[in-house]
Amino acid sequence: MTGRTAHSTRRAFLGGATAAAATAALGATATRAAAEPRHRRGRPAGGRSVAVLGGGVAGLTAAHELAERGFEVTVHERKSALGGKARSMDVPDSARGGRKPLPGEHGFRFIPGIYQNLPDTLRRIPFPGNPGGCHDNLVPSTEVLIARIGREDIRVPFGIVGTPPPVLTPDAFLRAVRGLLDNFAGLPAHEIAYFAGRLLVWFTSCDRRRTEQWERVPWFDFTRAGRMSPDYRRLLAIGITRNIIATKAEVASTKTVGTCAEAFLFNLLGRGADGQPDRVLNAPTNEAWIDPWVSHLRSLGVRFQLGHEVRDLTLDGGRITEAVIQDAGGARHSVTADYFVSAMPVEHARTTWNEQVRAADPQLARCDRLQTDWMTGVQFYLTQPTPIVHGHVNHIDSPWSLTAVSQAQFWAGRDFRADYGDGTVADCLSVDVSEWNKPGILYGRTAKQCTREEVIREVWAQMKAGLNDTGRTVLSDSALHSWFLDPAVELGGPRPANDEQLLIHPTGTWYDRPPARTAIPNLFLAGDYVATDIDLATMEGANAAARSAVNALLDESGSDAERCTVTPLYRAPELEGLKRQDEIRFSLGLGNAFDLG
Q: Which residues does the annotated region (Disordered) include (predicted)?
């Protein structure tokens, strides 16, 4: 097995249909600020200069919205490339014969139909030949494979719910969920019925119960997984939380898991979605999205400073007067602006909030309690096309909680051999590793205790254990050309490190997530850790948070420009009456009417 170190990023909201297959979610609480903000550009009434600190999805979204409204925007990014964890990157020294380098990434892009705000941005990024801009580069998958080790795999096609019920009565809801879970062969009928009942409790819970009660309850406890069969625990409790949100069912907030699962189920029922439940891009992320986005922002006048790491924010007279920047050469500079949008990941943003800044807004100190974990990608380059399934593979029994997608099948109009690498690579199997703290099957060590080469061998072995155990060889060692592991990960020493981690959601996390507007008049927060309707740390959350930050900035500046639309998750009108009844019950100290224990 040959190895290539890597450079890559992402934040995949994965597990495609496993999320759908265990759906339950939040009737969300974000607000729509205006109908069509992007078409009306206004002139700011106050200062016009904005320093956006961070060039990931949140930072680029903020720059996009501000530039359209007449502000002078400069984006400062600590890396040498834009796009944050969403970007793709070239595998070093992999191109031959005039081809492009092999594409690497932090992890595969997953843009489900439940997203509303990010797709709106994609439509507004011009792309040659696409009437709908970069949005036209989204390609739907049709199924998901849940790979079991030593068991028959579960193949779940999308559209499995059948004809969506015209009215979501409690009975119709239970029938739809039971129909979905019938695809999970081996689950006892009474456990399917029980889980459907737990989802009904969530779907009919009022917002206050979700925030004040279920936010404090782990998903494992909410679903009563400890009482159920091993398959129930693996499929409907542990697998969902570990593979989708990189946290453990025993500690993951029911509010977070339920919110996303509910949105997926509505998506499957054809309710309130932008498109199909599972969509990927039709090319490497930078080709299909990030590079056209940056070009468009430059055309709007946005300036970019790469290799600029924010070290400190200076507070004077109640306002931020400068950001202290360290460039790639180690020299420090002062960046001044009328407004500052902090669009860095929380683990980096909070290091820039000194005592004076934290004293000016005590909410910022609570961000120290937010937790991050490792969810990092590996790409395997194969010498033969390997379309395992037309969608994602969820290795639900793998110790390292792997999910994967064979990418070449979705890159229509591209001949992988002719376009990338040395002419022998025909496919890219992109894998996300969500669990770095459990022993593997080859070396008996955690991923953090392994070398980079050992991580690759271990991931490959775990995938083969789930795919090659039913009588045919899906993954062959002879087809493996090379691999690429996120260079943000440092392994092989006494202190493994990951420079690009993922916000996770143990119980109580919601109470520590800040709003986009701070108590400092000219400082605004944009990032997937900011409180948004989708709750989960995703590209959609980063996009929505940036829109909220821009709206707060517009208010502060006195601008007459239309505010950004912040589209909330879908809420089924038929269930609102049951939620109002539950609000009364909650106020009286009573449980949900459908919560039978």
A: 30-49, 83-104
- Going from N- to C-terminal start, the domains of the chain cover 1-30+90-117+135-279+376-500+586-597, 37-78+307-370+512-557
Q: Is the pLDDT of residue 6 over 80?
A: no
Other CB atoms within 10 Å distance of the CB of residue 155:
14
**Secondary structure in 3-state letters for 571-589:** CCHHHHHHHHHHHHHHHCC
Residue from 201, 227, 216 nearest 252 by CA: 216
**Cβ atoms of residues 255 and 213 within 8 Å:** no
Read off the pLDDT of residues 342-376 as tens digits, 9 standing for 90 and up.
999 999 999 999 999 999 999 999 999 999 999 99
Round to whole Å and give the CA distance between 452 and 483: 10
What's the rounded mean pLDDT across residues 159-174? Answer: 75
Cα torsion at 538, 541, 543, 544 (round to 10°)? 170
Residue 83 gets the label, from left (phi > 0), alpha (psi -120 to 50) or beta, of left
Whether the predicted model's global pTM rises above the 0.85 cut? yes
403 contacts: CB under 8 Å, gap ≥ 6 = 12, 14, 15, 16, 243, 392, 393, 394, 395, 431, 432, 434
Could you tell me if 235 and 21 are in contact, meaning their C-beta atoms sit under 8 angstroms apart? yes
pLDDT score recorded for residue 245:
64
Sign of the alpha-carbon dihedral angle for 449, 430, 103, 329? negative
The CATH number, out of the four listed (1.10.3720.10, 3.50.50.60, 3.30.200.20, 3.30.450.20), of the domain defined by the range 37-78+307-370+512-557: 3.50.50.60
Mean pLDDT of 391-409: 94
